[in-house]
Amino acid sequence: MSIWSIIKAEYLINENATKNWLFVLMLIVMGLTIINLSHSADAKVKEIVRLNKEIKALRSEYVELKAKVMKRKMASDVINRLKAENFVLPKKPPVKIVVNEK
């Protein structure tokens, strides 16, 4: 088979062309499948990138909220909030009661 016969596509019009047409059809289907799979893979990569950005944002929000909670749980902050609401704090510290179990 010469190059000129390939350019003229003689392999598609001769007597045994049905085998060649099936082969060309199979190549077209495989090509379309590969294109579809590559687009699907690209979409999944974009989704992964978006989800990773969302994870980073949520993680930073979690750290920020955790720091706020830790600050609000500090004894000095609790005392200041109680004073602002006109609560009277005791002068003596609380007494610890120890129970001996026998």
Molecular structure report:
This protein has 102 residues and is mainly α. The protein has one domain (3-84). Helices cover 71% and strands 0% of the residues. It has 3 helices and no strands. The chain has helices at 3-7, 17-73, 75-84. The longest helix has 57 residues, at 17-73. The protein starts with a helix and ends in an 18-residue tail after the last helix. The model has no long low-confidence stretch (mean pLDDT 88).
Question: In summary, what is this structure?
Answer:
This protein is an all-alpha fold. It is built from three helices and no strands.
Using the alpha-carbon principal axes, give the shape.
rod-shaped
Order of helices and strands: HHH
How many strand elements?
0
Note the total helix count.
3
The largest sheet, given as strand count, sense and whether it forms a barrel, is: none
Mean of all residue-level pLDDT scores: 88
Give the amount of beta strand, in percent. under 5%
What is the gyration radius calculated from CA atoms?
Answer: 38 Å
List low-confidence stretches. none
Between the first and last Cα atoms, what is the distance in angstroms?
104 Å
As for the number of domains, it is: 1
Helix percentage:
over 70%
Secondary-structure class: mainly alpha
